[in-house]
């Protein structure tokens, strides 16, 4: 595979829909990638113009993976479109409101230099929130890692319609990558709830109908996660001296679990097979 001199021989993949407000910063932070694939859901703002300025190739989100309103219903399906379109073996998955740091780009260069453009591997990437440009050092959800950098040789593609993730081939173990990805955090609670409520609706639609036993399992899982977050919140209050995530936003994640369980309860059936 040939690539432009000085560029990172990897493909950056991004999903967009009316993402002009954040996309420019996202692409500016990752401008050193040789190949950029934008999978767009019908933007009517300046998204496509921004993509063109950064030399991105734009593909259209497949209608099979969208709901009647044109919103993504199957995130794994759409993300797999970007893998099919990628020109390189190495992939970095970035959301349209996220940003790469210089240290992350440098770490990616180093991995590819050592393993080769057709090499193998999958990597956890650390992520940190920012609010109005200020990095959040302490949050109950830290460490916040996702498998964002990987070789297509080591994976079978994305799975799960919501909260999607990359599936690894048998025998492949993930590694940790130096560097950090920044996640600008929306300080508008109403906007956060609208985004999360859509994710809840998609999750509930996927498991309809839900047995009472599986509902109880969901209650246990959410309780475990919330308990862990409360423990971390107390630990951060005592031991973390950096910038903390505002308390109201920390509590919003617990409220998310309550809304999720309420949605699951509505689709729970008491019928026995």
Automatic annotation (TrEMBL):
Record-linked SUPFAM superfamilies: Nucleotide-diphospho-sugar transferases
Pfam families: Glycos_transf_2 (PF00535)
Lineage: superkingdom: Bacteria
Ranges of residues in domain Glycosyltransferase 2-like: 12-116
CDD domains in the cross-refs: Beta4Glucosyltransferase
Record InterPro entries: Glyco_trans_2-like, Nucleotide-diphossugar_trans
Protein name: Glycosyltransferase 2-like domain-containing protein
Matching PANTHER family: GLYCOSYLTRANSFERASE, POLY-BETA-1,6-N-ACETYL-D-GLUCOSAMINE SYNTHASE
């Amino acid at each position: 595979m040939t690539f432009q001199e000085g560029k990172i021989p990897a493909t950056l993949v991004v999903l967009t829909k009316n993402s002009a407000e954040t996309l420019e910063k996202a692409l500016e932070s990752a401008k050193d990638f040789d190949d950029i694939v934008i999978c767009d859901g019908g933007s009517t703002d300046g998204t496509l113009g921004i993509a063109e300025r950064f030399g991105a190739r734009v593909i259209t989100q497949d209608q099979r993976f969208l709901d009647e309103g044109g919103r993504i219903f199957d995130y794994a399906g759409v993300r797999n479109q970007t893998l099919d379109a990628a020109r390189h073996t190495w992939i970095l998955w970035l959301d349209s409101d996220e940003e790469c740091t210089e240290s992350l780009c440098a770490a990616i260069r180093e991995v590819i230099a050592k393993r080769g453009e057709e090499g193998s591997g999958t990597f956890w990437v650390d992520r940190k929130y920012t609010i109005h440009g200020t990095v959040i050092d302490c949050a109950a959800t830290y460490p916040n890692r996702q498998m964002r950098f990987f070789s297509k040789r080591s994976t079978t593609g994305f799975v799960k319609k919501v909260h999607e993730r990359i599936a690894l081939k048998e025998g492949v173990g993930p590694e940790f990558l130096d560097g950090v990805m920044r996640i600008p955090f929306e300080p508008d609670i109403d906007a956060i709830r609208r985004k999360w409520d859509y994710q809840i609706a998609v999750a509930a639609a996927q498991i309809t109908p839900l047995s009472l036993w599986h509902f109880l399992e969901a209650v246990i899982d959410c309780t475990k996660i919330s308990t862990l977050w409360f423990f971390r919140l107390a630990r951060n209050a005592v031991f973390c001296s950096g910038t903390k995530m505002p308390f109201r936003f920390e509590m919003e994640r617990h409220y998310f679990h309550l809304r999720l369980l309420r949605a699951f309860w509505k689709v729970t059936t008491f019928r026995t097979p």
